[in-house]
Design goal:
Keywords: Signal. It comes from Pseudoduganella violacea. This is DUF3108 domain-containing protein. It holds the Pfam family DUF3108. With about 250 residues, the chain is mostly beta strands. It has one domain (about 5-250). Helices cover about 10% and strands about 50% of the residues. The chain has helices at about 10-25, 160-165; strands at about 5, 30, 45-55, 60-75, 75-85, 90-100, 105-115, 120-125, 130-135, 145-150, 155, 175-180, 185-200, 205-215, 220-225, 235-240, 245-250.
């Protein structure tokens, strides 16, 4: 996919943008769990689907179709995900997560994976300083998990929607404490708006903010493209451990 920066009209404009970027990027803004998010209103009820595929020098191999649904129910926000995979083996993963309105503070997280006839159920509940297993979820393989967190943490499996609620602009940096349910300890990550690019979308080119993060890995760079108006993620790219490029691209 061809990526191209919009040309700056003159040197004066370039100087102004660089000065603005320098001021905005002077320090990362810490996103505190429980605080009102400035662009939470950009989250709308509805569904979006992404194609995930692996790109090499001479091939594009599809992995799955990834659907994300947002609903507002009973004073909470629900994000439901479904992954229909064809590689490396057919499988289905379904995720249901709940959040506090306005703040994105995570409340519960349920994940069910079905692969090769085996069904695995995982459930978690988030508290201000602790992530625990959902005690009353049937077949919960994570019932006994207990992970302490010295600060509130966001749910890493819903990072795309969280990033959508931030005040994205050239030079903006966000420091976010994330926990991936079922993994190790929570950790802070920094996301930076480093540019403005046109990328292909389902209905044509989309003017996007380009965000990057290194996921706390020296030398690593993951890229995210968010549409400037809606701040919906249009594309995401990152290298896998074997050096192949994993791509997620919006299809509708």
């Amino acid at each position: 996919m061809l990526l191209s920066y919009r040309p700056l009209r003159n040197a004066a404009l370039l100087t102004c943008l660089l000065a603005t970027a320098g001021a905005a990027g002077a320090a990362a803004q810490y996103v505190a769990v429980g605080s009102q998010l400035p662009r939470f209103g950009l989250l709308k009820e509805g569904s979006h689907r992404y194609l995930r595929f692996i790109r090499t020098a001479d091939s594009n191999t599809p992995i799955d179709i990834w659907q994300r649904d947002i609903r507002f129910e009973n004073g909470r926000m629900q994000i439901r995900q479904r992954w229909d995979a064809i590689a490396p083996v057919p499988s289905v993963k379904q995720i249901d997560s709940s959040f506090e309105m306005g703040t994105f503070r995570p409340l519960t997280h349920e994940r069910v994976t079905t692969k090769e006839g085996k069904r695995v159920v995982e459930g978690f509940t988030f508290a201000p300083t602790r992530i625990s297993g959902l005690p009353n979820l049937a077949e919960n393989t994570q019932k006994d998990i207990a992970v302490n967190s010295p600060e509130g943490t966001f749910n890493f499996e819903t990072d795309i929607e969280l990033l959508q609620t931030l005040p994205l602009a050239m030079g903006y940096e966000a420091e976010i404490n994330f926990y991936h349910p079922g993994a190790g300890a929570p950790s802070r990550y920094t996301f930076k708006v480093v540019g403005s690019e046109l990328v292909a979308g389902p209905a044509g080119p989309v003017d996007c903010w380009l965000l990057t993060t290194d996921y706390n890995k020296a030398g690593y760079v993951a890229k995210f493209w968010f549409a400037k108006g809606s701040q919906l993620m249009v594309r995401n790219e990152g290298l896998m451990q074997d050096g192949r490029l994993l791509v997620k691209t919006l299809i509708d």
